[in-house]
Amino acid sequence: MAVSSSPEIRVRRPNVWQQLNQVSWAWRITVVYLSIMLLIPTAAMLLRASTDGPVRFWQVATSPIALSAYEVTFVTAFIASAINGVFGTLLAWVLVRYDFPFKRIVDAIVDLPFALPTAVAGLTLATVYSDNGWIGSLLAPLGIKIAFTRLGVGVAMTFISLPFVVRTVQPVLQEMEKDVEESAWSLGASQFQTFWRVILPPLMPAILTGVALGFSRAVGEYGSTVLVAANMPFQDLIAPVLVFQRLEQYDYSGATAIGTVMLAISLGILLGINLLQAWGRRYDYK
């Protein structure tokens, strides 16, 4: 009896259009939203920055005034975020571990830099820290001038980046079990050893993430710093103000060139934040 061979079955692979139709609506809306809000504006800025060619881009991006503005912006933002890393963690610790009158009000005040318009914040800081202000008048006899100097830029960056550290560290402290600290004390560890070896390691990723977020926010700050600084080149001129000055001179390609450099540095910071979060997730499985 002859056995007939089975017919060859050909499976047609779906084309690209059919594959796109199989993508869920959540993915489609996400891609469209990200394209409109992030990718297209970023691509437009890069194209605008490249209109005058790479030589002109390099000249603008590495001009002495631009390099000085980068140095003022990023170094001051780093110092401000580092200060908030210490005092923001201390503030989060007090809010989580202690009960005191008006605690909820103090907790809400931490978010004030989020809600306050940056121009109003700059005007307030310039008033308080000027030579005739409440704090500036106390420091002026000592020869310390804050408003309309680089120190004023640092104060403004510290003010607007404080909530990022507090709100990042606070949930981690709330979830941290008190039994672990008590176990360390029962084994003979001092309070400093308990903080250094038990509390700080799982807390450090949240602190670094808050510092990085605050640093990113401080780098892009414009409204408050422009009012509390004198905006003098090679002294306290920050990069966002330099970008605005280029726009006032109708030098759009120069403004976008400086913005592109800031964008590249910001992307590096975001990559660092993701690496910190991945590092912090190691403690979730322990």
Describe this protein's structure.
30% of the residues are buried. The protein has 14 helices and no strands. The longest helix has 34 residues, at 64-97. It folds into 2 domains: 21-50; 53-284, MetI-like (MetI-like fold, Orthogonal Bundle). The protein has helices at residues 16-21, 25-49, 53-61, 64-97, 103-109, 112-115, 118-128, 136-139, 150-175, 178-186, 191-219, 225-228, 239-248, 252-280. By secondary structure, it is mostly helical. α13 runs antiparallel to α14. The chain is flat, with a radius of gyration of 26 Å. The mean pLDDT is 85. It comes from Desertifilum tharense IPPAS B-1220. Belongs to the binding-protein-dependent transport system permease family. CysTW subfamily. Part of the ABC transporter complex CysAWTP (TC 3.A.1.6.1) involved in sulfate/thiosulfate import. Probably responsible for the translocation of the substrate across the membrane. The chain crosses the membrane at residues 25-47, 68-96, 142-166, 195-215, 222-243, 255-276.
